[in-house]
């Protein structure tokens, strides 16, 4: 299973970085797309913007030249522009959807060309507990993340017979610089809603992504795997 060509969008920090480091530790050839070219040690960093199809094509061309056709695609890049519905501008909505959902479409379409030729591939789309659980102030974000479920399931029906799987990982609250910066009362409020009583570590999300990309998960496709400590109860 090691030595595969793996591409992770938004792999320079947070969950994406943890995923990259997990594949690197397994001996895979890992590339990450970022807007500034920063990358974890041992990974190939390629500057790309998921809202720009031309830059995505250029990034894939670079990765294919260095590592070969992408065998594992992790669509992780995403943004938020949280605000309540009545204050949300159309740009607030469309920009988030264009990055989180249409961006995943762009990289998926480009990756599928090589996967079809190889007759194998693993696609993991990083969604969120709010994609099906919902969250006030996140109509744009939750809509984009819910759309990834339909994307994975439609891809499974289209390409499942070609040795390609597509699954969704839906993290809940994950420990990060942002959650660490929350005041104590806010952290307690969030933690009270999580049956596990704690935030996830980025490594816990990364391990699930790695497993879904392995031979052990070859017969799993179109699934939504929550990594949320029971917050959404499987949605």
Automatic annotation (TrEMBL):
Pfam family, one: adh_short_C2
Domain of life: Bacteria
Ketoreductase domain mapped to chain residues: 4-177
Keywords: Oxidoreductase
UniProt signal peptide: none
SUPFAM superfamilies per UniProt: NAD(P)-binding Rossmann-fold domains (SSF51735)
UniProt GO molecular function: 3-oxoacyl-[acyl-carrier-protein] reductase (NADPH) activity
Coiled-coil residue windows: none
Matching SMART domains: PKS_KR
Classification via InterPro entries: KR_dom, NAD(P)-bd_dom_sf, SDR, SDR_fam
Enzyme Commission number(s) from the entry: 1.1.1.100
UniProt enzyme class: oxidoreductase
Gene3D superfamilies with a match to the protein in the record: NAD(P)-binding Rossmann-like Domain
Record flagged with keyword DNA-binding: no
Family: Belongs to the short-chain dehydrogenases/reductases (SDR) family.
Full protein name: 3-oxoacyl-[acyl-carrier protein] reductase
Lineage, top ranks: Bacteria, Bacillati, Actinomycetota, Actinomycetes, Micrococcales
């Amino acid at each position: 299973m090691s030595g595969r060509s793996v591409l992770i969008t938004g792999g320079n920090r947070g969950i994406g970085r943890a995923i990259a480091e997990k594949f690197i530790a397994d001996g895979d050839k890992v590339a990450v797309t970022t807007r500034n070219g920063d990358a974890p040690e041992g990974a190939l960093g390629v500057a790309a913007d998921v809202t720009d199809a031309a830059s995505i094509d250029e990034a894939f061309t670079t990765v294919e030249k260095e590592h070969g056709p992408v065998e594992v695609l992790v669509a992780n890049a995403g943004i938020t522009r949280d605000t309540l519905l009545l204050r949300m501008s159309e740009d607030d909505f469309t920009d988030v959807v264009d990055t989180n959902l249409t961006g995943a479409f762009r990289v998926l379409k480009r990756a599928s060309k090589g996967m079809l030729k190889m007759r194998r591939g693993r696609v993991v789309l990083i969604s969120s507990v709010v994609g099906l659980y919902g969250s006030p102030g996140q109509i744009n974000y939750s809509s984009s993340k819910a759309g990834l479920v339909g994307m994975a399931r439609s891809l499974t029906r289209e390409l499942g017979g070609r040795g390609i799987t597509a699954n969704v990982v839906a993290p809940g609250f994950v420990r990060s610089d942002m959650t660490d910066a929350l005041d104590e009362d806010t952290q307690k409020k969030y933690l009270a809603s999580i049956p596990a009583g704690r935030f996830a570590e980025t490594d816990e999300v990364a391990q699930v992504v790695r497993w879904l990309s392995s031979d052990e998960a070859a017969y799993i496709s179109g699934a939504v795997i929550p990594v949320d400590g029971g917050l959404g109860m499987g949605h």
